[in-house]
Structure formats: structure tokens, C-alpha cells
Specification:
Layout lengths: L2 H7 L2 H9 L7 H5 L7 E5 L6 H16 L3 E5 L6 H13 L4 E4 L8 H9 L4 E4 L10 E4 L3 H15 L5 E6 L5 H16 L9 E6 L4 H11 L5 E6 L2 H13 L5 E4 L3 H9 L5 E4 L2 H16 L10 E3 L5 E3 L1 E2 L5 E4 L4 E4 L3 H4 L4
Parallel strand pairs: 1-2, 1-3, 3-4, 4-5, 5-14, 6-7, 6-8, 8-9
Antiparallel strand pairs: 10-15, 11-12, 13-14
Helix pairs in contact: 1-2, 4-12, 5-6, 7-8, 9-10
The site of alpha-L-rhamnopyranose (RAM) has 13 residues, from helix 10.
Amino acid sequence: MKAKRLCAAGLASITAIAALAGCQGINPALKKIGLKSSGVYAFVAKDIQNPYMQKVYEGFELACTAEGAEALYKGPDTATAEKQIEIINQLVAQDVAGIAIAANDRDALQPALTEAMDAGIPVISLDSAVNKDSRNTHIQQADPEKIGRELIQAAAEMADGNGGIAVLSATAQATNQNLWIEWMKKELDENPDKYANTPLIKVVYGDDNPEKSAAETQALLQDENIKVIIAPTTVGMLAAGKVLQDEKSDVKLTGLGLPSGMAPYIEDGTCPWMYLWNPIDIGVLAGYTLDSLVNEEITGAAGEKFTAGALGEKAITASADGGTEVMLGDPFKFDSDNIAEWKEVY
Ligand code: RAM
């Protein structure tokens, strides 16, 4: 039973306790008498405008509502760690019940998130991880190794085995993009013969800002050795797609894009194919994970299991960074055969 339902039930003593807490946060008094109080679950986006983050939040809100908790969408105007720290501090002062964050920096949020956890507020990262000491667990969209390797394989194929590759990333501190880029470099280094004529020429950062991403794409087009751009960010992909289409460029694009926005560029061949997972499912998984932590059904340790609504039973496993994670699944490939169907979904 959750706080909201308790309030509505009008059970005199319990209602009084819940009212004292404003029906927010983990209510220790309710916990002592064995009742659960879900309260407010905060979602902190990398930046508030990012359409991908908004899709993830849609799923998060669905899970929160299903569990009787109130979802709260927060995020900075631009994707910086400093602004996220301010937001976390406010959420702790507000005594929210749980925090889910897509981090703009792996380590910089640690003092603020540690304070949250010390105050009894469970913390999960999703999309872009914080270090293992700053969280209870992480929601991992898909295996980072698979994502990084597959993107290089795709780019080399699009270059017909002959042509330079550039990466248009998000911010330079983004944990998720940096990890994917590490795996891209490993794929290249480990297979020197295969990629002899498809070197990685440059990595640039559009900061998940549409204008900066477009300007960085324009700059990449000045280098005629670059034949393929990999944008492992939905914001970067969309901006690059528009530049390449406007310029009628032969440079090909692949990466991680939202089917709804990228459909025109897949349909006209600018982007022969791309990958992504279901962002709404990421949010759903995050919402149920946070709820299970708040209700002390799990602690975030490897080996624990819980039910994530329609996603079924999920397991917490050890992650490569020494902490733990919950994995959603494999990325999907989107191309001209399936984009018409998927552009309607997300
Ligand atoms: C962007 C963000 C996000 C990433 C997706 C693929 O929207 O940078 O972190 O996961 O792209």
C-alpha cells in the first residue's frame, strides 16, 4: 500500500502520520508500523529539453503511477553536472522518496548523491551512470560493448571498407557516450586489418545541443576524408541528419537515434540504419527499480530479483565498473524496412 492510497483511505492515525510528512518522502513512522510510503520519485534528466529524456520519463511516470508514487521531472537547461548538483540538493531538502538520474558526469555528483543516500533516499542512475559509490544500482540500456562494436562495424560497412569515420558525441563528460566510444576504439584496435582503411579520424562534441551539434557536423564536412559520422546520441543524430540532407552530402550517418525523428533520414538513405532500445521501457524499468528500493524489497546488490511490471522479473547483476546494474536488453536495428512502423512508437 502506498502513501497516496493511505491518505485517501482516511485511516485516522495513519492519515495523520502521512499528513505530517506531507505524503512525501520515505515516512519513517509508516515504515516502523510496517506500511510502505512511496511518495515522490524524482527523475533528473541530462537536460530538460532532450526529447529522448522526455520519452524515458514517460515510462518512468507510468511505473510510478502504477505503484502509487508521484513522478517528478527535473533537469538543467543545459547538460552540466553543476546544475544537476543544485537540483539534487533541492530534492534532498524536499525529502523526496527516491532519485533516478541520467548523469552528466561520473564522479562530480558523488558528494550530493551520497548526501541523498545518507538521508535514506535511494539513488539509481539510468542512461548515463554515476560511479558505483554514488548509487544503489544503475539501469543499463544495453551492453556497452555491443553498442560500441556494432556502431564501428556499421560505419565501416557504410564506408564500403574505405573511408574515415568521425564521432559526433554528446558532452565530453557523458559516462554513457564515453564508454561507447571506448568500445568503438577497442573494436578498431583489436582488428587492425579489417579497419585498415576506415580509421577513426575525429571525435567532436555537440553537447546534446542541436545548434552546436549542427555546427560540429558542418565542421566535419570540411574534412573530405570523413565518409561516415557516428552519432551515439539522439540529439546529435537528428542535427547531423538535417545538415547532411540540407547539404545533399554523400557522407553517411549512423548511431543511436529516435525512430520518430530520424525516419526522414532513414527513408532518404542519409542514415542507412541506426540502433536504439526502447526509451519508454528504460523509464519503466527505472521506476520499478526505484520503487523496489524505496520499499526495501531490494538494496541494489547483485543477485537480487524484482518484478518490473510488464517487463517481468529482472535481476540485478555485477557491472563492469565494480557496482551493479539492471540490463534492459539488446539494442534494436532500425532501417528502411521497419522505420515506418517504429516511427509511430517512439
Ligand atoms: C541522447 C542522450 C542519451 C543517450 C541517447 C542515445 O539523447 O545523450 O544519454 O542515451 O542520446
